[in-house]
Design goal:
Layout: E1 11-15, H1 17-27, H2 29-45, E2 56-59, E3 64-71, E4 75-83, E5 97-103, E6 109-114, H3 116-134, E7 141-145, H4 151-162, E8 166-170, H5 174-184, E9 190-193, H6 197-201, E10 206-209, E11 216-220, E12 230-233, E13 242-244, H7 246-251, E14 253-256, H8 259-265, E15 278-279, H9 280-284, E16 298-301, H10 306-319, E17 327-330, H11 341-346
Parallel strand pairs: 1-6, 7-8, 7-10, 8-9, 10-12, 11-13, 12-16, 14-15, 14-16
Antiparallel strand pairs: 1-17, 2-3, 3-4, 4-5, 5-6
The structure holds nicotinamide-adenine-dinucleotide.
Nicotinamide-adenine-dinucleotide binds next to helix 3 and strand 11.
Pfam family, one: OCD_Mu_crystall
Protein name: Ornithine cyclodeaminase
Length: about 350
């Protein structure tokens, strides 16, 4: 006898990579980046509603695997994400991810989705949302250092949300810069491939570093950073993995997501435990100052925090009512009598 069909309660929505790609194109990538930035900013504004914990990281010689959970009391979300800087040498990505959203009242999951693309989108949306608060008002030129998987997303979000129109691009591997230039060509940017980081930062009001290297790297030294610039440093996001020389941290005002996580993973891991930082949610909710003058160097030490993924999952759930790019997956065992799980199993036993 064939196994009985699962009941309605067995199903949750599943957004595959294919459907995520369709969704992004159907909404339009810059619209989606702006929408995501709004959702993330709304959740930063209600920061105190969330359960917060540094992500749970499992380190190895090759990289890290992390779980990033949070809840606002109504919904619970988590993301599984890896970071393996040498993966690209064997044809694999540095970062891949998937995530889940569940109801807090019953604990039942309701949405499972790919989050490799969604992470790139939410990271870029977060960077640009933060830059809108901290970067010089007339910022038009950005140095983009590290031209790998995240880079085009960063560029598009900075245009959609901040108004960047010129990109000065540098990567230690010129093939990465060629790839990013190829992807961004014909989209209205002025693209300037550069041979050195020095050349890339020339005339830039924003410097984005999104490199991947499992070590204390020095992508930017103090002499490369001028008064008034905003640095968006997102590649230093693990113990022992940083991008900036510590002298920059001494000159800049440093803004972070969640200090207990950033002090372990961010650029500020190089600094003493009491090094002064401002939490971005306070700037957004108006309880702490952001940029206060034209000469100030502002630094977003972005490591990626669970609330940003929660916002992205919440956004995705809302969008699925207008854009049905999902499948139904029977992931919850659903016995007729909730206490008769064994009986349900037996219904599928061979005769
Ligand atoms: N903060 C966040 O929320 C967040 C989210 C996603 C990824 N990340 C991090 O962002 C970084 C980039 O991720 P990705 O997916 O684009 O990785 P990727 O491997 O696709 O690209 C990284 C690029 O950095 C380049 N690079 C390495 N060392 C360099 C150097 N010294 N100077 C210039 N370029 C250099 C590499 O050649 C490569 O092209 C990673 O470190 C990743 O962990 C952070």
């Amino acid at each position: 006898m064939p196994a009985p069909l699962p009941s309605e309660l067995a199903y949750i929505r599943f957004v595959s990579v294919e459907n995520m790609m369709k969704l992004v194109h159907s909404i339009g990538i810059e619209t989606m980046l702006k929408d995501l930035a709004r959702y993330i900013e709304d959740d930063f504004r209600r920061w105190e509603d969330f359960d917060k914990t540094p992500r749970v990281a499992s380190h190895s010689a090759e990289g890290v695997i992390e779980l990033m959970p949070t809840s606002d009391g109504e919904d619970y979300g988590f993301k599984y994400v890896n970071g393996h800087p040498s993966n690209t040498k064997v044809g694999l990505q540095t970062v891949t991810a998937f995530g889940l959203l569940a109801r807090v009242d019953t604990g039942y999951p309701e949405l499972l989705c790919e989050m490799t693309l969604l992470t790139a989108l939410r990271t870029a949306a977060t960077s640009a949302m933060v830059a809108r608060h901290l970067a010089p008002k007339q910022a038009r030129t950005m140095a983009l250092i590290g031209n790998g998987a995240q880079s085009e997303f960063q560029a598009l979000a900075m245009r959609a949300i901040v108004g960047i129109d010129t990109l000065r691009m540098y990567d230690i591997d010129p093939a990465a810069t060629r790839k990013a230039v190829g992807n961004l060509e014909g989209q209205g940017f002025t693209l300037v491939p550069c041979d050195t980081p020095e050349e890339a930062v020339e005339g830039a009001q924003i410097i984005t570093t999104c490199t991947a290297d499992k070590q204390y790297a020095t992508i930017l030294t103090d002499n490369l950073v001028g008064d008034g610039q905003h640095i968006n440093a997102i590649g230093g996001d693990c113990p022992g993995k940083t991008e900036l020389h510590r002298d920059i941290l001494n000159r800049a005002d440093v803004f972070v997501e969640y200090p207990p996580q950033t002090r372990v993973e961010g650029e500020i891991q190089q600094m003493p435990e009491d090094f002064e930082v401002t939490e971005m949610w306070q700037v957004i909710s108006g309880t702490a100052p952001g940029r206060v003058n034209d000469r100030q160097i502002t630094l977003f030490d972005g490591v990626g925090f669970a609330i940003e993924d929660f916002s992205a999952l919440r956004y995705l759930r809302d969008k699925l009512s207008e854009h049905p790019f999902y499948q139904e997956l029977d992931i919850i065992a659903d016995p007729d009598d909730p206490r008769d799980l064994f009986g349900m199993l037996q219904r599928a036993a061979p005769d």
